[in-house]
Amino acid sequence: MRNGPTRPRAGGSTADHVTVRRHNLSVVLSHLRDHGPRSRARLAEETGLNKTTVSSLVAELVDRGLVGEGETERATVGRPGQIIRLDGEHVVAVGAEVNVGYLSVLVLNLRGQVVTRQRIALDTAAMDPALVLSRLARLLDTALLGVGVHPVGVAIAVPGLVEADTGVVRAAPNLGWTDVPVVAEINRLLGEPPYPVLLDNEANLAALAEVEAQGLDRDGDLILVTGAAGIGSGIVVGGRLLRGARGFAGEAGHMRVREGGPQCACGHTGCWEAAVGLNALLAAVPGHEPPHTSAHDPEQDPLPDLERRLAEIGDRAAAGDARVLDAIAEVDRWLSVGAGILVTVFNPHVLVLGGYFAALRPWIAGSLRDELRGHVFARDGGGTRVAFSPLGFSGSVRGGASQVLDRVFRDPVLVEPVDKPLAQEETV
Ligand SMILES: [Zn+2]
Predict the structure, then answer these.
(1) How remote is the CA of residue 241 from the centroid of ligand 1, in Å?
(2) How many A from CA of 272 to the centre of ligand 1?
(3) Residue 123 C-alpha to ligand 1 middle, in angstroms?
(4) Going from the N-terminus, what domains does the chain have, and what CATH number goes with each?
(5) C-beta pairs of 19-23 under 8 Å, 24+ apart in sequence
(6) CA distance readout (Å), 361 to 80, 178, 301, 310
(7) What integer pLDDT is reported at residue 77 of this predicted model?
(8) Ligand 1 mean position, distance from CA 25 (Å)
(9) Distance between Cα 271 and ligand 1 center (Å)
(10) Alpha carbon of 68 to ligand 1 centroid (Å)
(11) In this predicted structure, which of 67-81, 185-199, 322-336, 377-391 has the lowest mean pLDDT?
């Protein structure tokens, strides 16, 4: 958000004043997030709000536990002032993920720092969805117990066709889920909590996390393509997710790039993911059966077998094994075909490759950049930068928690004042 401050119209209604104040609270809070701790005087100077207004806005943000006062700023001119900074204790947001082989929960504070993370290996694809969700609710309970404050919201990431509006997973083929009311079920399991529970596609949330990880402006354009058994992708336009009519936008893995190509898990043939998913690579490398799983984490891997096999493929490629290099080159070729379509249509600032593509970086980065130029209509690839994800498989939970926090930055009034003077209210 780059909105400037607004002022109430002369003679405007009380409603106008309330709206303007909420907007200006957002301006000050977002300014502190984007530019770091600073004095009230500097906040006033940089936002264009007057000093009295800034002091009043800061006081309200302090009441709501969103900012605090820090040590004195060493002013070059005049009196030193107290530094205002984002609060790191009172406000937290939660990102949770259900994926093939694991459940994951990550809690961020308002500064975007990790407060706690939990991750368990679980054969989710073989379990009843209700059982998976009860395990997720338990994991959320455990994580939040350690945090000690109510979160401002929980965002749940699931791979597949997700209806964010209704909170229902319509289809998650890799999990074997159809029409699962995730939000209603989690709300019930958590005892109808006072904070919102949101649902989104895992690649969408991971794409949002990449905006920050890639150092892109908050209103930038980015496409994330994550390689697992299938392909996850998320499209960010102007800093916001492209969702489409029913929230199903960005399923690039099922673009049909190869008429008569290999069979896809979705039932069609020739889908992009059937050509470049990890299953396709493993099928092409002798001695490697396709995995039954679609995700792994290099750091906390519940699926060491998959990691071991990827490492082995890397070793064989490094040793110059021609069959492995051919298989990687074939994946790379089809990767640039699909990526070329996405870059031609969307011309993002950055195309980010994540998941197992990041593990193949030494063998695909150079050729992909070259081939992409040949597949993109605009000269020099339209200026799109190709990058690899630094987030591993934590992008979805990080993106989910960030999105919940973003709601607070857009409307700080969503957070209730910290210590309501209850006694006073009771006597009134
Ligand atoms: Zn498909």
Answers:
(1) 22
(2) 7
(3) 23
(4) 14-86 (1.10.10.10), 92-204+396-414 (3.30.420.40), 215-390 (3.30.420.40)
(5) 21/57, 22/411, 22/412, 22/413
(6) 50, 35, 20, 12
(7) 58
(8) 45
(9) 5
(10) 50
(11) 67-81
